Automatic annotation (TrEMBL):
Comp. bias intervals (Basic residues): 103-125
Region (Disordered): 86-125
Database matches in SUPFAM superfamilies: Calcium ATPase, transmembrane domain M (SSF81665)
Protein name: Cation-transporting P-type ATPase N-terminal domain-containing protein
Transmembrane segments: none
Compositional bias segments (type: Low complexity): 92-102
InterPro entries given in the database record: ATPase_P-typ_TM_dom_sf
Amino acid sequence: MLILIVATIISMLVGDPTDGSIIIAILLASGILGFTQEFRANNDVAALLARVEVKVPVIRGGREIDVPVAEVVPGDLVQLGAGASCRPTADSLSARTCSSTSRRSRGSRSRPRRMPRFRCHPTPR
């Protein structure tokens, strides 16, 4: 793209406005097509995410049920399978090993840029 812009400038300076105009038209068409495709793709992803409802298995009232993530309340016991990840606000009752993607949990003093995720491997029953 940068090469085409430089070519347009050189073409205009040399005195050939026809080639420069053609290159500008191609750049504008490319930009409009790229923007339109990106805009439609973002709308499609938003529509798909609106249809998807992520559920998590929890123990509530002594029974294991699947609940939408937004409806998990304090007191629910979230069932994590091997390789599952959760926010650090969840309490872990029993786990064999837990690891984190956060530098803070590994001893770093710098503030993490995003909320850390913990990966827990449940204790075998």
